[in-house]
Write a structure and sequence with these properties.
Radius of gyration: 55 Å
CATH topology of the largest domain: Beta-Lactamase
Largest sheet: 5 strands, antiparallel
Shape: flat
Structural class: alpha+beta
Helix content: 40-55%
Number of domains: 5
Strand content: 15-25%
Distance between the termini: 103 Å
Strand order of the largest sheet: 2-1-5-4-3
CATH superfamily of the largest domain: PAS domain
Number of strands: 22
């Protein structure tokens, strides 16, 4: 630091003067504090002992009163009589018992804090003597809790502590309750048995009036806590009955002592004294600030003496700083400015009038400053020359790099080089081209180094480099050696000619593309026609297989519908193919003849591209229709078990069923949750849906000009799916509903109905798919079939054997 010498001098003076004084003051302060704390502890212990003795006396008097009342024969006799012979009980018994209680209470005139005395029999009858004339029956839950606690207590009198008053009419809301069980000797059982309990309530305000007279000092206070940790007395009346401070939780509940705690953010000395039998404790809380207040005069005197010492030290330090520190500080500041490259702002120092080492040091500094100014002028001219070279290097429109000849490490690269290769300046400097993995072929680097070694230069060297992101660049490299700061370096320029080569290659390839495109389009058309013929052949074979089984006879009409759907894309494809064939022959003749124009060829290629796109779109539509039909047909013709997406499979099945109702006034709506995957039998599932649609078209919409069918598929729990097929048709009469799944039951016997459709559905759902089916129908409003299927169907014999024969229902 600038004033380090002054600080050291002041530090020495503080050590020899203020430090001993501070040590003496600290020792005196600690001795006085320990003495005060010891005296306070002694006083607090005496005070707490006296208060616990007062508590003990009050509690003993209450216990004696309870024992006297409980031992009165007339009182225990009435308690037993009330419960045993309630019909013989009279108002006189109540008055006599209350009088006996008051008579016993008069013998303890010193107990000024008694609020009430309750005698509660086992049957719940109440004899009350207290601060109100009438009292309601006691809360039965509280009475049983008190009675149970009294029976379990080891003491003859159980101190419950601070409790709510059982008499809601009493103005004393919080009372200190003592409980004693009343026992009576039974002649029949020849043993003593409890006949009731005596509850004496003592006023918390009476205790508070006594403890409030105790003065522990400013901000000091007294706390009394019962055996359950509730406040019996606190300076704030509203805290009576509340829990004691959490800081007191770790203090013992027996014996006496003192501790130092942090209360409300301040240190305090806490003394405690506890009654061993009841675990009641009295606490004295004296803030440390209150206890140590008399020591402030001693502290003030010590501080005043220290301030005087500081004043003397400051005067000596000021003189030392003016004669010694300031000249040295001026020289130090000058050197700091020179170090911060601000030597031009440093002025020569005035020579001191004294003849000592400080004056010699100032003269030496002035001589050094003059020589430094001459050196800065030379370095400024050198920096200007370097700046010109750096600007030309960085702003060059071509990529430039500099590497050390001996090691091959990059010294610098300009911005164009960084943009071309994708590296940052920090990633390049200090590393070699091998480390950066720039060379696509390391042998090119060896050939370039050999050329540099022979000619001391490189000119238009063709190679290929890699960028940071892996792109390949065609490079033409040129470079020359030079010296920078006495070091041998090589400056080179790797120019990217990739785009130029690409354009040249495109020009070479453009003529070859014409013939290859025509040939490729022709081959694609021939391939598409062959695939179409194979698809039609497969479709006819599938139709024949489906007809063989009675359960798939309905697919005959579906084939006609699918063929109608295929007619449009196939017809469009034939039209486009014939047009392309005509244009190809015309263009081919023009190419063989003289004077073919580029525009004609481009027009032909544009027609081929658009025609091919249209052809591929129509053939793709036909392929999708054929593929979907083949999948549905394959599924329905076998009992093969596989995993499938329910939404895709059902939509494919419904697509094949669409021709059945497409030209009718009836519609089909479908809502299927996405993402449901089943491991089941798609063939039987398709047969089920086919029979639902056939049944609806045959029976539900008979005689109707409009109608709608609806299929919904949703998850049913974690392992099942629910399929609901509904229609808004005629509905099923109630007398037929229990027979719709019976074989050969039909309402159109002899009119095309076999009575097997819904029976087959029932067998598929229950026997193959492992699910359940429920029918809901209302005449005139429609019918719903609710099918619940497991996501993993049970195995059937044909799937276990791997057979692909049709499933027989």
């Amino acid at each position: 630091m600038k004033s380090q010498l002054t600080v050291k001098l002041i530090g020495y003076l503080i050590v020899v003067s203020i430090l001993p004084l501070s040590i003496f003051a600290l020792l005196s302060y600690n001795l006085a504090r320990d003495t005060l704390v010891s005296l306070a502890h002694g006083y607090g212990a005496q005070l707490l002992d006296s208060q616990t003795e007062y508590l003990q006396q009050q509690m003993e008097q209450v216990e004696n009163l309870a024992g006297r009342i409980a031992g009165t024969e007339e009182i225990s006799a009435v308690a037993a009589k009330v419960d045993a012979h309630g019909d013989q009980h009279s108002a006189y018994d109540d008055l006599a018992t209350q009088a006996k209680i008051r008579q016993n209470l008069n013998a303890y005139s010193g107990l000024k804090g008694i609020v009430s005395i309750d005698l509660l029999t086992n049957g719940g009858h109440r004899f009350y003597v207290g601060d109100t004339l009438t009292v309601a029956p006691a809360d039965e839950t509280i009475r049983r809790r008190y009675y149970g606690a009294g029976l379990e207590a080891a003491q003859s009198v159980l101190w419950l502590g601070v409790e709510d008053n059982l008499n809601p009419a009493s103005p004393k809301r919080k009372v200190i309750s003592a409980l004693k069980i009343i026992n009576r000797y039974s002649e029949e059982k020849r043993t003593s048995e409890p006949v009731g309990m005596l509850l004496i309530d003592y006023s918390t305000e009476s205790l508070a009036a006594h403890f409030r007279q105790i003065d522990l000092g400013k901000e000091a206070y007294l706390l009394v806590v019962d055996g359950h940790g509730r406040l019996v007395y606190a300076p704030e009346p509203g805290r009576i009955g509340a829990a004691r401070p959490v800081q007191f939780a770790g203090l013992p509940q027996k014996g006496k002592g003192s501790v130092r705690l942090t209360l409300d953010g301040r240190q305090a000395y806490v003394g405690y004294s506890c009654l061993d039998q009841t675990a009641w404790c009295a606490y004295s809380v004296i803030p440390e600030q209150t206890l140590l207040a008399p020591m402030q005069r001693l502290t003030q005197a010590a501080l005043l003496l220290m301030l005087l010492c500081f004043a003397v030290i400051a005067m000596a330090g000021r003189r030392f700083r003016r004669n010694i520190v300031l000249p040295i500080q001026a020289i130090s500041n000058g050197f700091k400015k020179i170090q911060d490259l601000h030597a031009g702002s440093v002025e020569p120092l005035n020579l001191p009038t004294t003849r000592d080492e400080i004056a010699e040091l100032v003269a030496w500094f002035n001589d050094f400053l003059a020589s430094l100014h001459l050196r800065e002028q030379y370095e400024a001219r050198l920096r200007e020359s370097e700046h010109k070279f750096s600007s030309i290097f960085q702003l060059s429109p071509v990529p430039l790099g500099i590497v050390r000849i001996g090691t091959g490490e990059f010294v610098d690269v300009n911005d164009h080089w960084q943009r071309q290769f994708g590296f940052t300046h920090a990633e390049v400097v200090g590393r070699t081209s091998i480390a950066l993995d720039i060379w696509l072929d390391p042998e090119d680097r060896q050939r370039m180094l050999a050329e540099v070694e022979q000619t001391r230069a490189v000119q238009d060297f063709a190679t290929r480099h890699k960028t940071k992101d892996g792109r390949i660049l065609d490079i033409v490299m040129s470079g020359r050696p030079l010296q920078i700061d006495g070091a041998d370096v090589f400056i080179f320029s790797p120019v990217d000619v990739t785009r130029q080569h690409q354009i040249e290659q495109q020009i070479r390839d453009i003529n070859q593309q014409l013939e290859s495109r025509v040939k490729s389009r022709t081959e694609k058309l021939e391939l598409a026609n062959r695939e179409l013929a194979e698809a039609m052949n497969s479709l006819q074979q599938t139709k024949s297989e489906l007809v063989r089984s009675e359960k798939m006879a309905a697919l005959g009409s579906l084939v006609a519908g699918v063929a109608h759907e295929l007619n449009t894309p196939i017809g469009n494809s034939v039209t486009v193919a014939s047009t392309l064939q005509d244009q190809t022959e015309t263009t081919y003749k023009a190419v063989l003849g003289p004077g073919v124009r580029r525009s004609e060829i481009l027009e032909y290629l544009d027609s081929v591209a658009r025609g091919t796109e249209l052809l591929m779109r129509n053939l793709g539509t036909a392929r999708e229709l054929v593929a979907g039909f083949k999948q549905v047909a394959a599924d329905q013709a076998s009992n093969q078990r596989r995993q499938f997406n329910l939404k895709e499979t059902v939509e494919g099945i419904l697509a094949t069923l669409a021709p059945m109702y497409k030209k009718t006034p009836f519609t089909m709506a479908c809502e299927i949750d996405a993402g449901i995957v089943m491991d089941s039998y798609p063939g039987p599932l398709g047969q089920m849906l086919t029979n639902f649609v056939t049944n609806a078209l045959t029976h539900a919409f008979e005689g109707r000009t409009a109608g709608s069918m609806r299929l919904t598929c949703t998850r049913h729990g974690e392992a099942e799916v629910e399929l609901r097929f509904s229609d808004d048709g005629a509905g099923i009469p109630e007398e037929h509903r229990n027979r719709v799944f019976d074989p050969f039951f039909t309402t159109k016997l002899g009119r095309g109905g076999s009575g097997l459709g819904l029976n087959i559905v029932y067998n598929i759902v229950t026997s193959i798919l492992g699910g359940t089916i429920v029918l809901e129908s209302e005449v005139g409003k429609g019918t719903s079939f609710i099918v619940v299927l497991p996501l993993h169907a049970p195995l059937i014999a044909s799937s276990q054997s791997g057979s692909s024969d049709p499933v027989q229902f």
